[in-house]
């Protein structure tokens, strides 16, 4: 029973990682860049949701919507201003620019809202569902449901709509996609928009679990989700889902059964072992080398 | 782009190497003169040793990122290993070797060697991977090293060393001393590092890296970077070659960390986190890949920049971020690129003409 409740808590945390990891993996799949500023978009989303809930007194759903809109606009703006001029540049230049954007968002947030930690209001009911001796909090259930919904919607979007098809085409071969009449710049913007919108949803779920909002809030979940994306095979959407869930479960189980302080080390050690056995992640495509 | 890098490194006149050494020695002489005449503010004087440490770590990382072509996001992890090894060695030897200089040399050597050994151990699995997967694994190792050091407790008394993990179980006899104290790190370290030692370390790092780059092994490393399969076909042992640059880079980071650790009386493991690795990577990329002189200049500028912007108070890190983004956008702008290229070719043509006249 104890194990089962840890497992479900792990799935809850993993769902948050999975939603964030989707943002990393989609951007990587299409723009072939590691968007290090993604974690800080989560932070901005958390602040927007926090102010919407406390200062403007909005109910939960409109607050989340507002946060999603702000993050989407932010994501697309960052892409236009900072990443678009670097399409032809080396990947290292893009990486450094992303780091610059990350510093910019963190320090901007610190200037605007001070570095003091703000307490996120408990908006999702903190009751729990009891099945026998098993206790599952509603928050965990909602988090898992949201993650499944997001996954399903995204899979439908990617597979069934023309924009989704265009996205898949761009991730295969941008040049050929452009020749087929796909507006590659538009597709990249859409990717950033979706990724950032998902980051906003993740931020609300994350802050409901750990109710503190501060400027460097996004850093650690960002690194973890990035790890999850690589774990599942970066560029693969089901991979991000699987990687996120597994990472959350491993983290919670490691905390429960081995050591709280060493849980991070264990998570990263598992990642290394997985990459050694499957060098392109769990569901990553194996790249064949042409001579 | 890769061709250009190669051209720079194979510059027949070794201009880069001369420039690096001249820069370091000139900077050392000027700064020492300023300091002895009392013209250097205490803030800048306190930054001298950290700057030299970052330069050494950045030179090591430059070898890794540009010469070997591997994105390493865990350089701070190696610095951490070097730093805490050196602090422990120095703390243990306080009584035996009371003079600062020999103890400093022993500690830095130990830090460098242990970090290089870590580099070797980590390199075995890491170098099997490629590209972004390699980057994420170095990131993971950096996190693991930080996490492990945060949980280590090491003390010694007359009966020898006592070590415990996760929980502090060391019970030391009176007169004993804790060398590592978990999340608190190392405290009460004697500050034996100084600017001269830092400069000597930079020069040693430059000698090692330049000798490696211009040697047969260096050419083999670059061959692996440019075309792994072709390099393998010409009989280069890929794993050994890559390992060489990885271990040298880790060793340099260890030496840099050792010097850094011995410059402060307290050192927490959190100092060497992911952000530090990224910071060093930024120095390397902004300085120009494969360009050691550029690395040295960009490290100095970027360490000083937040301090110079201190008058802007809260806005300084924001401006730092904007400067970082703008530099990347400007240096990658097509118009600016063609402009610098035409300037450079004009300059080269001028030099050629001079040589002909001289002949």
Shape of chain A: globular
- Major beta sheet, strand line-up of chain B: 2-1-3
Number of strands of chain B: 3
Assembly of the depicted chains: heterodimer
Largest interface: A-B, 45 and 45 residues
Low-confidence segments of chain A: none
Rg measurement of chain B, Å: 22 Å
Query: Could you list the spans of chain B in which at least 5 consecutive residues all have pLDDT below 50?
Result: 1-10
Strand content of chain A: under 5%
Structural class by secondary-structure content of chain A:
mainly alpha
Strand content of chain B: under 5%
Termini separation of chain B comes to: 33 Å
The total tally of domains of chain B equals 1
In DSSP terms (H or I, runs of 4 or more residues), the helix count of chain B works out at 14
Overall 3D shape of chain B? globular
Please describe the structure with a list of short key phrases separated by commas or semicolons.
heterodimer; A: 291 residues; mainly alpha; two-stranded antiparallel ribbon; two-stranded antiparallel sheet; 11 helices; 4 strands; 72% helix; 4% strand; globular; B: 359 residues; three-stranded antiparallel sheet; 14 helices; 3 strands; 70% helix; 5% strand; disordered N terminus
């Amino acid at each position: 029973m104890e194990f089962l409740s840890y497992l479900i808590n792990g799935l809850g945390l993993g769902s948050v990682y999975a939603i964030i990891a989707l943002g990393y993996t989609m951007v990587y799949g299409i723009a072939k860049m590691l968007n290090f500023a993604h974690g800080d978009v989560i932070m901005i989303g958390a602040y927007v949701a926090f102010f919407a809930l406390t200062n403007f007194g909005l109910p939960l759903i409109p607050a989340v919507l507002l946060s999603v809109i702000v993050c989407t606009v932010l994501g697309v703006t960052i892409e236009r201003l900072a990443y678009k001029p670097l399409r032809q540049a080396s990947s290292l230049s893009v990486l450094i620019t992303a780091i610059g954007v990350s510093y910019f968002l963190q320090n901007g947030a610190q200037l605007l809202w001070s570095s003091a930690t703000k307490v996120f209001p408990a908006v999702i009911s903190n009751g729990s569902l009891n099945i026998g001796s098993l206790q599952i909090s509603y928050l965990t259930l909602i988090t898992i449901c949201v993650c499944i919904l997001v996954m399903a919607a995204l899979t439908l979007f990617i597979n069934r709509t023309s924009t989704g098809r265009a996205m898949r085409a761009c991730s295969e071969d941008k040049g050929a996609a452009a020749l087929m009449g796909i507006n590659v710049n538009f597709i990249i913007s859409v990717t950033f928009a979706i990724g950032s919108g998902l980051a906003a949803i993740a931020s609300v779920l994350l802050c409901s679990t750990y109710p503190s909002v501060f400027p460097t809030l996004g850093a650690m979940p960002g690194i973890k989700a990035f790890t999850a994306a690589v774990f599942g095979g970066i560029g693969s959407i089901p991979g991000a889902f699987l990687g996120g869930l597994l990472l959350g479960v491993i983290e919670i189980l490691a905390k429960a059964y081995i050591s709280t302080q060493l849980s991070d080390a264990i998570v990263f050690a598992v990642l290394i072992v997985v990459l050694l056995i499957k060098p392109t992640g769990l569901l990553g495509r194996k790249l064949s080398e042409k001579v | 782009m890769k061709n250009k890098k190669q051209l720079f490194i194979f510059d027949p006149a070794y201009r880069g190497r001369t420039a690096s050494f001249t820069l370091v020695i000139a900077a050392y002489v000027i700064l020492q003169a300023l300091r002895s005449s009392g013209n250097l503010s205490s803030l800048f004087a306190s930054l001298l040793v950290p700057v030299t440490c970052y330069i050494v770590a950045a030179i090591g990382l430059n070898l890794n990122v540009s010469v070997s072509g591997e994105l390493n996001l865990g350089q701070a992890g190696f610095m951490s290993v070097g730093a805490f090894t050196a602090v422990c060695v120095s703390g243990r030897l306080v009584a035996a070797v009371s003079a600062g200089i020999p103890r400093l040399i022993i500690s830095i050597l130990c830090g460098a060697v242990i970090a290089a050994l870590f580099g070797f151990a980590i390199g075995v699995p890491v170098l099997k991977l490629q590209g972004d997967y390699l980057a994420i694994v170095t990131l993971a190792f950096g996190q693991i090293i930080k996490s492990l050091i945060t949980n280590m407790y090491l003390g010694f008394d007359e009966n020898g060393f006592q070590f415990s993990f996760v929980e502090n179980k060391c019970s030391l006899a009176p007169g004993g001393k804790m060398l590592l104290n978990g999340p608190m790190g190392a405290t009460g370290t004697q500050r034996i590092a100084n600017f001269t030692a830092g400069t000597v370390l930079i020069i040693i790092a430059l000698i090692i890296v330049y000798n490696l780059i211009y040697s047969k092994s260096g050419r083999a490393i670059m061959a692996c970077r440019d075309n792994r399969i072709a390099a393998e076909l010409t009989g280069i042992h890929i794993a050994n070659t890559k390992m060489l640059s990885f271990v040298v880079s880790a060793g340099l980071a260890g030496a840099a960390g050792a010097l850094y650790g011995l410059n402060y009386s307290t050192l927490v493991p959190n100092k060497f986190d992911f952000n530090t690795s990224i910071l060093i990577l930024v120095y390397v990329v902004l300085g120009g890949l494969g360009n050691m002189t550029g690395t040295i200049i960009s490290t100095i500028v970027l360490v000083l920049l937040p301090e110079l912007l201190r008058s802007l108070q809260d806005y300084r890190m924001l401006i730092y971020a904007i400067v970082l983004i703008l530099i990347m956008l400007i240096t990658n702008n097509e118009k600016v690129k063609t402009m610098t290229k035409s300037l450079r070719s004009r300059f080269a043509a001028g030099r050629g003409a001079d040589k002909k006249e001289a002949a």
